[in-house]
Amino acid sequence: MMAWETSIMRSSVDALLPGLPAGKRILNIGFGMGIIDAMFRETQPSRHHIIEAHPEVLKHVEGSPDCTFGKDWEAGGPSEGAYKIHAGKWQEVVPRLLEQGELYDAIYFDTFGEDYSQLRMFFTEYVPGLLDEGGIFGFFNGLGADRKVCYDVYTKVVEMHLTDAGLDIEWNELDVDMKGLEEEGKGEWHGVKRRYWTLDKYRLPIITLMG
Q1: How many CB atoms lie within 10 A of CB 201?
Q2: Which residues pair with 208 in a beta bridge?
Q3: In the list 1, 40, 106, 108, which could disulfide-bond 32, CB 3.0-4.6 Å?
Q4: How far out from the chain centre does Cα 52 lie?
Q5: Number of Cβ atoms within 10 Å of the Cβ of 81
Q6: Is 67 helix (H, G, I), strand (E, B) or coil?
Q7: Shortest CA distance to 12 belongs to which of 97, 146, 137, 180?
Q8: Which segments constitute the RMT2 domain (predicted)?
């Protein structure tokens, strides 16, 4: 996750937790820079579980004084295991959470270096079992975002696959401030191999159990 995505994360939290009530159960897959988890934490959830696989991110969480999601955060939960960073691939961690009977009011998915097949597997095989009645699921929607036609096609594909999984979706279209994002290798893209975002609109998914 890059810093320019902060406004999208803010809107995502607002959509996942309408009114930002305290005491909700949250699962976030992909800690990254910790932007969205810091926002989730502000709502004082009753459970806040994070899954992160990247070794460098985990090293930062465990050893950096700048990170506030380490052992002290975990120990400060309202009950044992309520606040937890699960180290490992979500494909290995999520089945265990399902077996343990964990349920969540808000689930967010934003992994690094995975293709659409993994997102589809997650919402097809796991979201229906992890999302409690009335809960909301969302993901960072960068699917095909380097070309508008691809973004539009993925929108339809996601809608079709979510329906097959027994999930409803609404899109909230947001404006994206393109300042600093216009040119490959410049501005926010300095040092980034490929500019993965070129659009001035973002479609924020709001997904619920069908019915």
Answers
A1: 11
A2: 168
A3: 1
A4: 11
A5: 11
A6: coil
A7: 137
A8: 1-211
User: Token pair of 91, please?
Assistant: 């494909």
Rounded to 10°, the helix 116-125/148-164 angle is 20
What is the C-alpha separation between 133 and 147, in angstroms, rounded? 35
Retrieve residue 151's tokens.
Answer: 């973004």
3-209 adopts what CATH topology?
Rossmann fold (3.40.50)
Q: Where along the chain do its domains lie?
A: 3-209
Residue 27: other Cβ atoms inside 10 A: 29
The one-letter code for the residue type at 26 is I
Please state, in angstroms and rounded to a whole number, the distance separating the CA atoms of residues 182 and 189.
9
- CA dist., res. 178 & res. 151, Å (int): 17
Using 50, 70 and 90 to split pLDDT, how confident is the model at 10?
Answer: very high
Residue 176 confidence (pLDDT): 86
